[in-house]
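hey so i finally got around to running the thing on that chain from the lab meeting. sorry it took forever, my laptop kept dying and i had to restart like 3 times. anyway pasting the input first so we r on the same page abt which one it is
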Amino acid sequence: MNAGEDVMERHKRLIGGCCMVLVSAFTVAAAEGEGSGGRAAGANLIKNPSFEERSGPRKPYPAEPWGYGFLDTLARSPFAHWGYSGFFDGGEYDIKLGKGHTGRVAARLVCRRRGRGGICTEEIKVKPGTTLRFSVFVKAKGASGECFVNFEGDPGDGWAAIPLPRKPDYDWTEVKGTVRVPKPRGKRHQPDEEGNIRILVFIYTKAYGELWIDDVSLVPIAGGEAKEDAGEKKGRKIGTPKA
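ok and heres what got predicted. didnt touch it at all, straight out
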């Protein structure tokens, strides 16, 4: 082998070694980033977070105040992967489309008679003990009254909650918070074979006027607890709404 061929061979070995290091580092990072429900930590667990995807034809609403059964009011929501009811606590709230915070569309909850109305995610699978960072953009028009985010599912109804701004009128505002998923309540809600339980995120209004909602995010935090960002709220129990 001459000098030129020797230099070329050394370069090949060096490049090959660098590639092996990069592949190994990526594999370790991917393994460490594996989060709740088999998804990578940092991935948004909420489907259709910006309400851009529409659902199919809406079915006639039945006599029962919460639809056809456990959370199947997905049939009444105009947004894919979101449920809706406007008839809690004697209230009547319409769900409408509005101009989005970033995209074309936002969800609007419009009060006709004050009570409680809300939208909800589909069931989300997570492991007990997982720390989740939640964020949402909201705005209000004449929304005098309480609006809040409520976490429900196998750990119980209202195992954590994050209040929304208590002002009747405000422009798009980001609300952030962190919650830690507790163990399920009762023998009927034990983890599945993969160790996951079911949670749901509800966004409720008990106010007059309109609550606008867009760009919803729920992200697992790798490594458990994380420091709160400026303006971020710790999810806490503020009372369980009665269905």
